[in-house]
Every structure is written in structure tokens, then in C-alpha cells.
Amino acid sequence: MSYTNKPKIVVIGGGTGLPVVLKELRNKNVDITAVVTVADDGGSSGIIRDYVNVVPPGDIRNVMSALSNLPSLDLDIFQYRFRSEDKFLAGHAIGNLVIAALSEMKGGIFPAIQELSEIMQVQGKVYPASNEPLVLHAEFTDNTQLAGEAEITAAHKTIKRIWVENNPWSDNKKPVAVPEAVKAIEEADQIIMGPGSLFTSILPNLMIPDISSAILRTTAEIIYICNIMTQKGETIGFTDSDHVKVLNQHLGRNFIDTVLVNTEQVSEEYMDFNRYDEVSKQVKHDFKGLRDQGCRVISDDFLLLRNGGAFHNGERVVEELMNLVGSPSKNKN
């Protein structure tokens, strides 16, 4: 593959994993687009969503900070979260309030993000997956169903499938993607999913029909960065192959081309399970299962131990992603 311009890379997801990759990608000579989930209903984002009827801003805030060229003090202020004893403002991040305010001023989340991107000197493009806040739904293996990301995760049941719906007061009968996000996917050279919560950060984006269709049409290499640890309420007992199987099943086709998996061992003695109560055991490997689904497997030490938790080393991950830009992928040939 040859380029007349910078390689176009689209990163899809949400949560805390996405910024890890974006912080390092912004230092590379690439055209970055981040497509961010809008189904979060927990914490500060959930409260703002309920009272202001705006797309939950938390994931968008973190992505914009990761891509911003502002001085560190400015970003610290934008990311500052009020203490729990602050009553009315308890738990709210200043950036969330700014995004909510701009959404009202500009008549929607999309123009608000574009305006704020200029103010924050964002390197790349940030698009919400949809202009409307979406409601996440799940069906579990016991055939029960729940709505709401926080409720689904807290149920600690095995998820069979998830889907997204508009709020009841929406004018649209089904979720509609931001057209710019769809176009970015169609024109991408590389699409990255993860790291992040499988059912609540990555799949909600893919469950928007316009986005899933674009994913299945694109000629870009699609890369999944598998989580290092399993997650309570979502992926207990999952192998890396199980993660990919869930993605493929939801889109009805084996569409993941390449999977990045960490092979460095995480010491349970190091992990602070009181602080990171959403993690449990290290994801086990099933390389044969991945290859049976048509995946190229890139396995290496992508581990970063920090503050009692296991995270991806963004620098090493992005170094591998840059090696893969332009290389032929198995499923596209």
C-alpha cells in the first residue's frame, strides 16, 4: 500500500484504554480519528446525561485530553474532578461540565466537540459515535435482560449479546451514526479497537447499524488490542480468542484481521484488587482459536505495571501498530 498523504488511522472505543493509544499515536506522522462511545450512563457522565439530556461527556473528555497540545496545567484543570464532599459538584470533572455547556450553546454534541477541539488544540479528529445518547441493552445467558451500562456490569452475569437503542424521546427510530465517523471508517487505512471494556466500550459503537456496515465494507486492516486482564461483569474466564469470537458474532462475520496480545506475566501479588476491583485474572491465550477465526496474532510484552494495576504500554503498542501500517492483512487478500 502506498500513501500520497499521511496514513489514516481510526481508533474506536471508550473508557480509559483508548487514551493510552491516542497519546502515543499523536506523536506519529498519521491522520488520527477517534470514534467514541456514547452509551456511558455511570458516574459524572451519567448524571449530566440524565439532567441535561446530552451525550455522556466522560469518554470524549479523556480522548480530547489525550490528543490535546495544551500545556499540562490547562489539561489538569480540564480533567480536574471535584471531591466527594463538594456536594452539588461532587464527582464532576470540569471538562464534563464544559462539554455539556458547549453542547447547549452550539445545539448539539458534534459542533460542541469541533469547537472545543480548536480551543484545546486537538491533534486529530474526535467524533461521537452518535449525536444522541444511546441506551445499552444486554441479554444474559439466563435469558434475562437489562438496560443501562452500569446496571449491566453490576449484574455480574454472563452476557450473551448486547445492542443499543435511542432514548424513548428520540425522533429517530433506530440509532444513527455521525456521518463523519462512518466516512472516516470507510476511508481508513487502519482501524484499531481497544484496549477497553469489550461489551460496554467497544461493542456499543459497532452496534450502531451505520458503523457496523462501514466496518464490514472497509478495506482497512482491523486490529483488536486485547485486554490484559479479565473484567468483572463482562469477561470473566475469557481467553483472547473468546474476545474476538464475541466481536465476530455480533457483526455476523469474522472481521478482525489482527490481534495484539500481551504475553508478559502479571504478578497477582502486585495487583491492588481493592483499587482496581473491576479486574480479576489475566486473560489466557488461545492462539489456535484466534487463527481459526482468520486472525494474524501479534504477541509481545505490552505490559505496563503502574500504581498496583496492569495497563498497556502505549509506546510499545503504537510501535507495533506503526509496523503494521501498510502491511498486507490476512483477511483482505
What does the average pLDDT come to? 88
| SS element count, helices | 13
Radius of gyration: 19 Å
Question: Could you say what the CATH architecture of the largest domain is?
Answer: 3-Layer(aba) Sandwich
Counting copies of identical and different chains, the oligomeric state is single chain
Helix content estimate: 25-40%
CATH fold group of the largest domain: Rossmann fold
For the record, what CATH class of the largest domain applies? Alpha Beta
Structural class: alpha/beta
SSE pattern, N- to C-terminal? EHEHHHHHEEEHEHEHHEEHEEHEEEH
Q: Which percent band covers the strand fraction?
A: 15-25%
Describe the structure.
- It contains 13 helices and 14 strands.
- With 333 residues, the protein is an alpha/beta fold.
- It folds into two domains: 232 residues, Rossmann fold (3-Layer(aba) Sandwich), CATH 3.40.50.10680; 88 residues, no CATH class.
- The strands form four sheets. A seven-stranded parallel sheet has the order 3-2-1-7-8-10-12, sandwiched between helices.
- It is globular, with a radius of gyration of 19 Å.
- About 2% of the residues have low confidence.
Keywords:
333 residues; alpha/beta; Rossmann fold; 2 domains; seven-stranded parallel sheet; 13 helices
